[in-house]
Amino acid sequence: MFVEKLTLPSLTTLTIGTDAFHLATDMFKGVWPPQTFSDFFQRSGCSLTALHLDYISLPDRELIALLRLNPSLVELRVKEIRRKDYDFAAVASSDGTIFKFEDIITPLLLTSLHAYNHGLALASPLVPKLERLHFVADGFLFDDELFWKMVMSRWIPEREYVLTIGVSCLKSVKIHVLNRGLQEDVERRLQQLERAGLRVSLTG
Predict the structure, then answer these.
(1) Three-state DSSP class for 12?
(2) How far apart are CA 114 and CA 128, in angstroms?
(3) CA distances for 120 relative to 7, 8, 38, 69, 163, angstroms
(4) Distance between alpha carbon 56 and the CA centroid of its chain, in Å?
(5) How far is the C-alpha of 169 from the C-alpha of 156, rounded, in Å?
(6) How would residue 160 be classed by pLDDT, with cut points 50, 70 and 90?
(7) DSSP 3-state percent helix, strand, coil across the chain (nearest 5)
(8) Comparison of pLDDT for 199 and 103, the residue scoring more
(9) Which of 13, 36, 110, 178 could form a disulfide with 50 if both were Cys (CB 3.0 to 4.6 A apart)?
């Protein structure tokens, strides 16, 4: 892969994605290479502050591992596709097997992003400096309540508490749920946070 040849010590923003107008033909259909990216970040020694993943097939566990490599991240954007619009059964992977679009914004990812209740007692919070979050999620798979709990865990306007738990306060949340809108009660609670100072953008 091309990334194997790169060393980018000054890299701060990384976008990996597929053109939205050519998803079926241009989407990467191989196996995500975790070691390649781990080696890249170790070799580069960069402090990534923004990561954008647009319309790519990436297992949730691999994204979590990728986030673990970048504790300085301030901005995270993940855009899923609306799976029902695509017939991947007819698409072969590079190794000849049938391509499967991996789930990304899963309950596991949302739980892992929780500031303190992430299921890993001895692990530090994932991306503790995160301030801006942007999700485009497939509504058939998206867990509204877990999303709300994760956002709420990172809404920490009291500076003293920020220092205590070691997690920055979220400043901006954008969420677009494909196929449907957010559940009304979750939308209402996010609007309450907006009135308290969180920048919230809701589309569906």
Answers:
(1) coil
(2) 10
(3) 32, 31, 21, 16, 20
(4) 11
(5) 5
(6) confident
(7) 35, 20, 45
(8) 199
(9) 13
- pLDDT (mean) for 81-104: 70
CA 1 to chain centre: 23
122: left (phi over 0), alpha (psi -120 to 50) or beta: alpha
Q: Which of 67, 138, 129 minimizes the C-alpha distance to 105?
A: 138
pTM for the full predicted model: 0.89
Largest pairwise CA distance in the chain: 55
Domain 2-203 has CATH 3.80.10: yes
CA–CA separation, 12 and 8 (whole Å) = 9
121 phi, psi to nearest 5 deg: -60, -35
Domain residue ranges in the chain? 2-203
What does the pLDDT look like over 36-65, one tens digit per residue? 999 999 999 999 999 999 998 899 999 999
Residue 190: C-alpha distances to residues 41, 146, 175 (Å): 35, 13, 10
Mean pLDDT of the chain: 87
Residue 18 is predicted with a pLDDT of 81
Pairing of strands 199-203, 172-178: parallel
CA dihedral 94, 95, 98, 102 (to 10 degrees): -70
With a cut of 60, say whether residue 90 has pLDDT above it.
Answer: no
DSSP assignment letter at 90: G
